[in-house]
Amino acid sequence: MNRFLQQWGEAAYTTVGFFWMALWAFILGYAISSLIQIFLTEKRMQQTMGGGGGKSVLLGTFFGFISSSCSFSALATSKSLFQKGASFVSSIAFLLASTNLVIELGIIISIFLGWQFVVGEYVGGILLILFSWLLIRLINPKKLIKKAREHLEASSSSSMSDKPSTEKLRSQESWTKVGKQYAMEWKMVWKDVTVGFTIAGIVAAFVPDSFFQTLFINTGDGQQTFTFLTLLEHVVMGPVAAFLTFIGSMGNIPLAALLFGKGVSFAGVMAFIFSDLVVFPVLRINAKYYGWKMSLFILFLLFTSLIGASLILHYGFDFLQLIPEGASKDITEKNPFEINYTFWLNLIFLMLTGLLIYFGFVKGDKVKHHKEMAPKSPVLEKTLKWTALICYFWLVVGMLLKFTL
């Protein structure tokens, strides 16, 4: 029993430490995302993404890069762009870029996994888009795309602002909306981040290496070279592991770091990170938007693309000798609360949070701001909310155990 209580304390301490290490990055990323989403109109994006050629794909990728990393926000925006005339391929490019190429995700990955994984994330995100574009051109699903548009015809759509960005910069109302959007960004992810970081702490303290050696074959014992079949198994099991956690990519990064520390291949870890759009909640939302046939086609498109992208990344990085050797093995041994740059950055960005909240909810308490979100399952959301609250109880008791035992 005493052993269990000690592990409980270690798990909670690891979770809180992980979050403290990443706090400033979350704040910076969501602040930048909020600024961009208020000052760049969705109408302007839609007007430039109508074609199916390289220009529209490039623009869809760029607009995704500067958008929110929340999967549910990305799903709603990509649906809205497609519904209002953007091509299917540019909408997919936007969706993939907004969940794989965003600034905040790169910062979080650099903290937990190192610069090699940041490069892998961005290069891999581009590969995902190129693979999807190629598959769409080869398969040419015109009938599916037509039916998907017809499925959306009855949907109501919010009006899109076309006020010039220069005018918005001088408007106090716009800055109020930035504060509200920032709060909304946290509202969208707090449950996922809480559960994801808590799972990472529990895995670090309780789950033996043998579990990962069973789930991902030929891992552990300093294994650095993998056969093609082993890598293929890893990139297939990466999405399976992501499906089991059902947490978005931002909350899954600490767990990805633990997987790499346990000996999972570079390809397997990248596939795990890329898998936030191939889980059941996303499949269900796409079915609600476009119908089940298109939803399953998008699942096939993204799953096939992430397998190809992860394998190419692994072999490419291996050829260039860029794959890190157990870079994350000591992540749970670090002291996350020492007085260093993380401490001071957290203080600075917590003050920024206070400033944004002040503008959004004190100075502009009468200004309304609404952002379309993908329809979430009430049962899943309620389950996730209660799971997050249980996680807070787990963490509070665990921290008490950490410093009393």
Task: Name some characteristics of this structure.
405 residues, 18 helices, mainly alpha, single chain
Commentary on this structure:
With 405 residues, this protein is mainly alpha-helical. The protein is built from 18 helices and no strands.
Brief characterization of the structure:
With about 400 residues, the chain is mainly alpha-helical. The chain is built from 18 helices and no strands. Helix 4 (about 70-85) runs parallel beside helix 15 and helix 12 (about 230-245) packs across helix 16.
Unreliable stretches covering 5 or more consecutive residues: 156-161
| Outline | globular
Total helical elements: 18
Number of strands: 0
Strand and helix map with partners:
Layout: H1 2-39, H2 42-47, H3 54-65, H4 71-83, H5 88-100, H6 103-112, H7 115-139, H8 142-153, H9 165-169, H10 172-206, H11 209-215, H12 228-245, H13 249-261, H14 266-273, H15 280-290, H16 292-319, H17 341-363, H18 378-404
Helix pairs in contact: 1-6, 1-10, 1-17, 1-18, 3-5, 4-5, 4-15, 5-7, 6-7, 6-13, 7-16, 10-13, 10-17, 10-18, 12-14, 12-16, 13-14, 14-16, 15-16
